[in-house]
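Quick log. Single chain, no ligands specified.
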Amino acid sequence: MIRTSYRTHLCGTLGEKEIGESVTLAGWVHTRRDHGGLIFVDLRDREGIVQVVFSPEVSRPAFATAEMVRGEYILQVEGEVRRRPPGTENPKLQTGAVEVYASSCKVLSPAKTPPFYIEDNINVEEELRLRYRYLDLRRPEIQHGLKMRHRAAKVARDFLDSHGFWEIETPMLTRSTPEGARDYLVPSRVNPGRFYALPQSPQLFKQILMVAGAEKYFQIVRCFRDEDLRADRQPEFTQIDIEMSYVGIDDVLRLSESLVAEICREVAGIEVQLPIPRFSYDRAMALYGTDKPDIRYGLQLTDVSDIVADSAFKVFTQVVKGGGMVKGIAVPGATELTRREIDELTRYAANFGAKGLAYVQVTAEGPKSPILKFILPEEVQRLLARLEARSGDLLLFVADERAVVERSLGAVRTRIAEHLGLIPPGFAFAWVVDFPLLEYDAAEQRFVAVHHPFTAPYDEDLAFIDEDPARVRAKAYDLVLNGVELGGGSIRIHRRDVQERVFRAIGVEPREAEEKFGFLLEAFEYGAPPHGGIAFGFDRLLMLLLGRTTIRDVIPFPKTQSAQDPMTQAPAPVTNRQLAELHVKLDIKEQTKKI
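-> predicted structure:
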């Protein structure tokens, strides 16, 4: 229903079929142009802009009102829809064939001059935009993001409903549990000295729902993590959370990729080719140096250890003899990189553990590099053939233990592809499966869960969990889009004995396990079905589909990178009385202001 007490039509919906009609509009003054005898106002609402013409011949009172209005005033306008004179049409507007001649005009709300223009592509500091977020949200590109956010949520709900899922809410106030990021804690007034935690995800509750017989659950849910922020992180974010009973990996992946394809089609007009390709974790690391591979371009990592194992270049040979490896990438058209640029890449690789970055320039006159004097000509030719090098290519090599080689060379691959513009437009999805269940944390001197401690190991690998934990594979999977992790999930542990073995492997003692997760372990004793699920980063998906570079552009009220809200000034001090009610005492120099 469009008609309300203030309007009969929306500004952006008027067209030739309304010509001759009398309409009532309400919206913001987008622009105002005074041509002497006529005043033109572009009136804007959520659906777009229409040109309103104020003429003293039609209505002197309306013309007088138009003389005093300014940008962002809210007007109610009555008038007749007319066809624009030939040659004055505006093809850039959906309403560009018509205009409204105002017979009356009322100012519903005056406005101060905004601190920035209400239009797209403004060059304004983000801090200022977030300080006046209610103005920033009026801009068409941000409005479009809100509309697409709504549409994506509706598509997800409709799709999952059609597949028999129930949308079930889970608590916002729960208990703090180990693993993962830091929790946001909420002190309890009625339970002195005790704290709730805001959920990092509904993980335990959705598993409980499977034990409870819900069988198919979903939720578009807010989650909270107290971690360092970046372009695709926020302290509070939204995910599409899904859990199913009696499923295996293939069942979850098929449903998930169909859901994502439906969202892409309806929100961005993108057709996703199904099935989405799958890479094992080992293969993704071997080819791309990351478990979040961007497969839109090549530059795949290639093992050349066997070629250089007996060369005179000791940097390579010593690494190979010590059990390490040498890998390289061939970068097309990169021989023109300066020595300074190569040195910058070398320093960048060092951030990921590489001790150096060897290079070979493949020119029309032949290969050139300081390292070639240590490598036989036939070995050089084998390197060129292995990397399928052509004239104009730059070959880059890292020698070290496998993890360092893949991590650092994978980072260099992405960096140089961005620098040289080698990444084509478009969207490329990939599944990464068969992750390690556990990885060793040198800082904590123990094994930790790669995903979370409720991920099920492969049945045939469970025998290794006590003696060789690194060998155990997880029934886990991540969906990646253009090098960004969109979502992840796993088949869950549904037996108490297996869950306790995984807890022991990550150093969670029985007493701690009972204290923190006793309700889940006990639930497993009452018949828990095999189950699994996935959670998609809703904000990240929208960011990528809409071509934005930060999730802050698709979240209505985001925080800055310092986790602050410039509009409301949150987080803010509270009164000593409030702290006393919560039985909390601050141990900081700057005490809470009295309010």
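The longest helix spans residues 140-162.
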